[in-house]
Amino acid sequence: MVNLLIGDMMEGTEFVYNVPGMAILISVVISGITIFLSCLIPAIKASKIPPIEAIRGTDDIKIKTRKIKTSKLTKKLFGIGGVIASKNLKRNRKKYRTTVVSLVVSISIFIALSSFLTYGQMMTGSYYTDLSYNIAVNGGNETLYEKVATWSGINSYSYSYQTSAE
Fold first, then answer.
1. Cα separation values, 111 from 47, 102, 137, Å
2. Keywords for this entry (predicted)?
């Protein structure tokens, strides 16, 4: 797909992506185990509760509405929405913890991925820089470069040697 999109810009260069089959297999197995375990615990809990109780959800809320009080500071700072959120937080501590943990994990993954992509863009930018030259000679030897340097109109030149290791 990459070759189709930017193949004209990079003549003679072909991008080859090779993902080992074992990496895909391990990812699928780990994902399957994670999904199975995440479904197993709620299924065991749900099997112990009668259907009517599960629909009502009376086991989750143990504190009565009248007993939950919020401070006046919460009401002044956050308004009625903050009061409702504070009461809900005090009623459902397990759901609150799950929400906070999932938000922390999501934000951490987002920051890590964003940093990785920014670093990748910086490295790509330093590799593909805009060089100010009019003539480039590739594949020559030192005598060819010295001969080109003596041409008229050449103010300065540089010699760069690159090799690849496979």
1. 39, 14, 43
2. Lipoprotein, Membrane, Transmembrane, Transmembrane helix
Q: How many domains does the chain have?
A: 1
> Domain residues for 30?
1-57
Helices within 7-149 (DSSP H only): 21-47, 51-56, 72-91, 93-127, 142-149
Cα distance between residue 80 and residue 64, in whole Å? 19
Residues contacting residue 83 through CB under 8 Å, at least 6 positions apart:
70, 74, 75
Q: Is the dihedral of CA 121, 122, 123, 129 positive or negative?
A: positive
Tell which residue, 136, 156, 132, has the closest CA to residue 144: 136
106 inside domain:
no
Q: How do residues 119-143 score in pLDDT, each as one tens digit?
A: 888 777 766 666 677 777 776 677 8
| C-alpha–C-alpha distance, residues 134 and 158, integer Å | 12
